[in-house]
Amino acid sequence: MATSSRLSKESSRKFLTLRCSALTRRSNASLPNLTGENPWEACSVASVQSMTTGRIVFLGDINGAPGRMVLEQQLPTLRERYGAFRLIANAENARNGSGLTPDLYETFRRFGVDAMTLGDHVYRDARIVAALEDPLKPIARPANLSARAQGKRLIRLSACPAFSRDLFVFTLLGRVHMPSLLANDPFACADEMLQALPERNPIVLVEAHMEATSEKGALARYLDGRVAAVLGTHTHVATADARVLRGGTAFMTDVGMTGPHDSVIGRNPEQVLRHFTSGMHVPFEMGSGGEAVQGAMVEVNLETGRAMSIERIDLPADHTRAPFRTMHTRP
Ligand SMILES: [Fe+2]
Ligand SMILES: [Fe+2]
Hints:
Number of domains: 1
Structural class: alpha/beta
Bound molecules: fe (ii) ion
CATH superfamily: Metallo-dependent phosphatases
């Protein structure tokens, strides 16, 4: 098994793109099977050495207007370059750096985002709760909150129906240096979530929304061989450790941020510096400049549900083109 990283150009050329005209719903499944209606319905399927693989793109936290703009601009490039059958994004910072509104949820769906996850900012805009509770909307709250927390815990998406496989996505919040929400044990919650899945060898993407690199790494090793990928979010800083673990689980400690990188994790650096140098509370506004789409592409064996490779995504904005041309004056 490949340990990780970029596919060779030669193997990429072997990829066959199959158009999937309709996505099927399995009658014996208890969970809603979300079909989505967007350009990503096209499934890219690879036949390499009789192995059937598909690609999933997962994007780091979409942060404010700069993040929304670079996402909109770079989505055509993402589609063309990675040919993924599903695109999923963490959207917890989409509303001016904190929370997600129903309007922005719909906007991202129109852009072609198949499903959205949320982390510790999940309830910052309470209007999103209706979408979280709607079984047909592909968005979920972190799984390891109280049973009384509002919203569903699992996203189920059809993969390419030619292979009768679905993709399951859930988010686990960390407990180390994460004071903003009270989370339960993410390891026990992962066991519980996996045991409840209706498929054998399911294709599962787990988002590790955690502050501590150690907690993310431990979770990835705990789930190695049981899920396709454990992908970290929350710190907004991408790490250089993308790899496929021994059991076949793709892992990256943090996939980064879809937002402005001329900032301090998305916020205005002057204000953040004033806070750190004075020790006083300072309101943080969004930063701007250096926008990029960051995330990871995971190539999955659709039969086994294990990862074949993982590649880091880092697509910078083109500031000479809309929508940035009218927003920034860059040297
Ligand atoms: Fe977060
Ligand atoms: Fe975030």
